[in-house]
Amino acid sequence: MKHTLPPLPYAMDALEPHISKETLEYHYSKHHQAYITNLNKLLEGSEFESASLEEIIKNASDGLFNNAAQVWNHTFYWNSLSPDSHLKPSGILADAINEKWNSFDKFKEVFTKSCVSNFGSGWTWLIKKADGSLDIVNTSNAATPLTGSDIPLLTCDVWEHAYYIDYRNLRPKYIEAFWELANWDFAEENFV
């Protein structure tokens, strides 16, 4: 099965001024595409050649896992962003956030701190645990909650290529911009 670059859920310039078209041209068109190209090469003749992306992530290791997980993580990240962000969740997700962190502002503070302190390259996730409660987890490199029982709701890519063109080495400024774009409708769909 050949994997292809999924279309962005918005135009390349739709996230401006928070994330530039130039960043998306590199991050989506080059980085994300490179993971897909590498994955397809690695899959040729392997036992996972006709497996779904999720099956590869849950059962493969090394290069196959890394490339498959990065394809999935990036696709999830693009959907975690929206030019039509509501700036905060509503409904049952908002209730769950308030139950766990007492307020959306406190949640934002904790999530931001996790993003900023996530050492090296990786991802910060809002997840729903098996017991239904929420948590924030950091993963390194290509690691993803998909390999366990946690359900990812929203993610922030903290690999440097996600923000270097727009914010250079100022990860905290990028995280501020992330809050202007967080797709709470997508997170709510994942929560239900």
UniProtKB/TrEMBL annotation:
Q: Which Pfam families match?
A: Sod_Fe_C, Sod_Fe_N
Q: Which residues bind Mn(2+)?
A: 27, 74, 157, 161
- Looking at the keywords, is rRNA-binding present? no
Q: Does the keyword Oxidoreductase apply?
A: yes
Top EC category? oxidoreductase
- Its EC number is 1.15.1.1
Alphabetically list the UniProt keywords: Iron, Metal-binding, Oxidoreductase
Q: Which reaction does it catalyse?
A: 2 superoxide + 2 H(+) = H2O2 + O2
GO MF: superoxide dismutase activity; transition metal ion binding
GO CC entries: cytoplasm
InterPro entries named among the record's database cross-references:
Mn/Fe_SOD, Mn/Fe_SOD_BS, Mn/Fe_SOD_C, Mn/Fe_SOD_N, Mn/Fe_SOD_N_sf, SOD_C_sf
Q: Manganese/iron superoxide dismutase C-terminal domain: from which residue to which, for each copy? A: 89-190
Q: What sequence ranges are listed for the domain Manganese/iron superoxide dismutase N-terminal?
A: 2-82
Function as written in the Swiss-Prot or TrEMBL entry: Destroys radicals which are normally produced within the cells and which are toxic to biological systems.
Q: Which family does it belong to?
A: Belongs to the iron/manganese superoxide dismutase family.
The protein's name is Superoxide dismutase
The protein's organism comes out as Solimicrobium silvestre
